[in-house]
Each structure stands twice: as structure tokens, then as C-alpha cells.
């Protein structure tokens, strides 16, 4: 079952503890003030001060020449992939990375780009030998290998810099450029204890989401070389992502970068606490990494558990069987976490 199934229509407005995803976060008072007081302009004319500032701030923090604000992470990845690759070229990507599995094959549909999946290791990394083995020779029967696409975090797993570097090097040795889908980039740097530039520096381009753990309502940023970002800007317009007074969103993103990065460690700590409780209940398989907990009830009582928790104001996603993903975020504080813990204990108690 997909981690996204069952997300729709769960009535999250009433929930006191919504663990389905870190995308459910709402702007807090400080973020709303930043939105309300934002000076705005038309970003398609390059005149929105908030968007320009957000792009400059992230380009600098990530050590890239340029950056581009886009409505979603999917469009950010897609505009980047389209900027790198021509028809008949291919992207080597993890078989359950988001770009391969959950972006509706957009690069193939819209760009005539082949996506070549390679297995993802249990630690979330790609094996350098698998990458080397997937690269095509120069042969008219074959697609032209052009880009390696990495992901960090993957299912919450923060992939260590050494593994990232080894994968990137395997790509570079074969003449590929390297893209990083860093939707939860700052969860990765928080968990790895590395600098933003250290992680971003392993790839030519990086896509980050402002709308997940960072708590902004919408928006993603693609950062990379100037010529790539210029091409991606044209693709963004073509894809319908040229927004006008987008500064209302960019202002929230700037606020999030300033106020909500350092606090991600809290989400990781609460995830560890929740995983600890589930472990001690001994009623299924538990794993945890950064802000995510995966719990597979051993008796397959997913639906019963979901109904029980919902009655306690706790919302979880997932299907009728398999692993339930629970995601910690800034709108789940200690009280909300306690509600989830009590709900789990009363279900199994
Ligand atoms: C969420 C996510 C995306 C896409 O972001 P949207 O804003 O939902 O389009 C891309 N990659 C990964 C790894 C993600 O988790």
C-alpha cells in the first residue's frame, strides 16, 4: 500500500494530532504576520521582492549560483529534470525514490525522458556499483544516460554524506550530472549534523520543500548552476508555475527558513519517543528515522487502530494493511504527542 493512500478526507481540521504527514502544518501567528506585511510584486516580471530574496537566500545557503521558487516539490524536480535532459536521454534514480515512484512519470510524459530505476538499499542510499551498472554505453540501441537523481531524506532516512558522495562519484565518473531531491533536506542536515553546503555540494542541483517540516503553506525551491536555473525558469512558465504576487508564499518560506529549521530536531526527538512507546508495546514492527515512524501492527488491525485513534483526535494514514507512517512536525507538540501515546496505549492496553 502506498504511504499516501487513505490521506484524503480524514477530517484533519478536527484533529488535535495529525500524524499523516508534515505537509499538514498550518502557518502560525509569526508566519501569518510575515505574509501580511510582505511587500509584493509580479514575480513573472522578476519584481517580487520576497521571491527574489528567497531565491537569493537559498542559493547562498546551498552554495549554488542561482535558485528558482516553484509551487510544489514535484514541479521543482520536474523543471530541473526537463532542464537537464533532452528526449531520449535518461535519468538513473532509486526505484522507490519520489521522482520515480510518485511524480506520475512527469519527466517521461512531458519530456520524453527515460527513468531508469536502480534498487534502493535499506539505508536509503544507492549502491555505486548499481549506478555504474545502469549507465548505458554509447550505442544507438540505448538511451543516453544523462543524470543521476539522489534523494535525502528517503522515507525519513538521512543518508550519510559518505554514501551520498560515493553514489555521486559513480555518476560523475560516467559523465552524469547529479540532482538531489531534498524535499526534506533540512531534516537530513539536522540528523547528519552536517552543514547545508556540505550536503548540497554533493549535487549540481537541489530541490527543497518549504511546505513540509518547515511549515510553509506551499512552495519549493530549486537551486543550481545559473544556466540550468535559467532553463528551469522557462520550463516553470511552460508548466504553468509562473505565479504573480507569489511573495505571499515566499514570505512564509523566508520566515520558515529563519524560524523553523533549528526546531526540526524537536520533531526527530518526538519521533524517537513515539517509536520507543511502540517498541515497548511489542505489538508490531517499528522503525524510526528523523521525523518519521513506521509501525506495522502484527495482527493487521490497521483499520481498527485508525478508528480508535480518530475517536481520540489522532489521525494516521496508511492502508488496511502494511506499515502505518506517522510523521512528526511542528503542529504536534508534547500535548498532541501524549494524546497519540495514550491512544496507542488504550488500544493495546
Ligand atoms: C513531498 C516530496 C516531493 C514532492 O513535493 P510536493 O510539494 O508534494 O509536490 C518530492 N520528493 C520527496 C522525497 C518528497 O517527500
Q: Keywords for this structure?
A:
disordered N terminus; 2 domains; binds pyridoxal-5'-phosphate; Aspartate Aminotransferase, domain 1; alpha/beta; 349 residues; Aspartate Aminotransferase, domain 2; 17% strand; three-stranded antiparallel β-sheet; globular
Q: Secondary-structure map with pairings?
A:
Elements: E1 17-18, H1 29-36, H2 49-62, E2 66-70, H3 73-84, E3 89-94, H4 98-101, H5 106-111, E4 114-118, H6 128-134, E5 144-151, H7 161-173, E6 177-182, H8 185-192, H9 196-200, E7 205-209, E8 220-224, H10 226-238, H11 247-259, H12 264-281, E9 284-289, E10 292-297, H13 302-311, E11 314-315, E12 324-327, H14 334-348
Parallel strand pairs: 1-11, 3-4, 3-5, 5-6, 6-7
Antiparallel strand pairs: 2-8, 7-8, 9-10, 10-12
Can you give me a brief rundown of this structure?
The chain is α/β, with parallel strands linked by helices.
Task: Walk me through what this model shows.
It is a single chain. Mean pLDDT is 95; it is low at 1-13. The radius of gyration is 20 Å and the shape is globular. The chain has two domains: 17-22 and 263-348, Aspartate Aminotransferase, domain 1 (Alpha-Beta Complex); 29-259, Aspartate Aminotransferase, domain 2 (3-Layer(aba) Sandwich). It is built from 14 helices and twelve strands. The strands form three sheets. Strands 2-8-7-6-5-3-4 form a seven-stranded mixed sheet, sandwiched between helices. A three-stranded antiparallel sheet has the order 9-10-12, with helices on one face. The protein starts with 16 loop residues before the first strand and ends with a helix. The protein has 349 residues and is an alpha/beta fold.
